[in-house]
Amino acid sequence: MSTRFYLNLFAVVLTLAVIMLGAYTRLSDAGLGCPDWPGCYGHLDVPTSQAAKNTADAAFGQAVETGKAWREMIHRYFAGTLGLVILLLALLAIRRTGNPHQQRVLPWVAVGVVAFQALLGMWTVTLLLKPLIVTAHLLGGMTILALLGWCLFRQGPLMWRWPVSGLTSLRLLAGIGLVVLVCQIFLGAWTSTNYAALACPDFPTCQAQWWPQTDFETAFTLWHGLGINYEYGILSSVPRQTIHWVHRLGACVVALTMLILAIRLFMASRTDGRWAGLGGALLAAVALQITLGISTVVFHLPLYVAVGHNGGAAVLLLTLVAINHAAWSARHG
């Protein structure tokens, strides 16, 4: 394997870490731990001395909470490092090699997404955790992961030209699976950013009902105006449980879609046994994600389980990217 491959692999792992650090920052209520951007109270680190804290308090009108501030800054440090790694990958993509599968465009697309991510990160703070911005920030991280994953699989010789019968149906199912998952990731992010994770504290019912009271209009109003502090949420109980319930329904749709896709992959293994490996990986990722999602509710939002649920979504996305790459690189068997 080339140096570019291992750098790409490092970028994928680092992106997973950044996504989970972002989830940890958000779920531990540290999203406004630093009231400014890109520094923290006017510094590139967190003010620790009492004199520095007093100066920061006076300048920003907000008391320094050292733990929250460090969580926010560590997330920024990791994100900044990821941006530099992706830029290096893009610069390396300019060099011509003998690899016919070398990606030249996607690394630069990733650079563009990273730049927009930086803006979203700034707006997350300056717009006081507006759900639409925070949700877009999470989706941007997932987009970067998908782009880097595709570039990685493109370089991997094990993912190329597998024979399969019924190639069109496999590609269609793989594409549908990816779209359904992206919609569910949006719903999960919308649940989290509106503080609706415990709006339905029981399982499998919601507020002891199979179909709880709902308010879809308020629940999915994307823009509530400026100048509102969204920390801990602004929605009442009914819109929040609506968001949560729709996310659960979406999980059912995802589970069914992934099961159908996995069956199709196992059928494809009749032509080449490697397809069964992807089918097994898909079922394992779905089972893990469902388990984490249910545990989040049953155990009342334990922090590390909730963070793991975000990481599980990222792993499931990467699995779907691998399946789509294999399907679109396959040949008729």
SSE order and pairing:
Layout: H1 3-27, H2 50-60, H3 66-94, H4 106-126, H5 131-155, E1 163-164, H6 167-193, H7 216-219, H8 237-268, H9 274-298, H10 303-329, E2 331-332
Parallel strand pairs: 1-2
Question: Explain this structure to me?
Answer:
InterPro entries: COX15/CtaA_fam, COX15/CtaA_HemeA_synthase. It is found in: Membrane. By secondary structure, the protein is an all-alpha fold. It folds into two domains: 1-159, no CATH class; 161-333, no CATH class. The protein is built from ten helices and two strands. The protein has a two-stranded parallel ribbon. The radius of gyration is 21 Å and the shape is flat. It starts with a helix and ends with a strand.
Features of this protein?
single chain, 333 residues, mainly alpha, 2 domains, 10 helices, 2 strands, COX15/CtaA_fam
Low-confidence stretches: none
Distance between the amino and carboxyl termini: 28 Å
Share in helix:
55-70%
Largest sheet: 2 strands, parallel
- The radius of gyration is 21 Å
User: Oligomeric state of the chains?
Assistant: single chain
Q: Tally the structural domains.
A: 2
Order of strands, widest sheet? 1-2
Instruction: Tally the helices.
Output: 10
On the 0 to 100 scale, the average pLDDT is: 93
Number of strands: 2
Strand percentage, roughly?
under 5%
User: What is the global morphology?
Assistant: flat
Secondary-structure element sequence? Answer: HHHHHEHHHHHE
Keywords: Cell membrane, Disulfide bond, Heme biosynthesis, Iron, Membrane, Metal-binding, Oxidoreductase, Transmembrane, Transmembrane helix
InterPro entries: COX15/CtaA_fam (IPR003780), COX15/CtaA_HemeA_synthase (IPR050450)
Protein name: Cytochrome oxidase assembly protein
Pathway: Porphyrin-containing compound metabolism
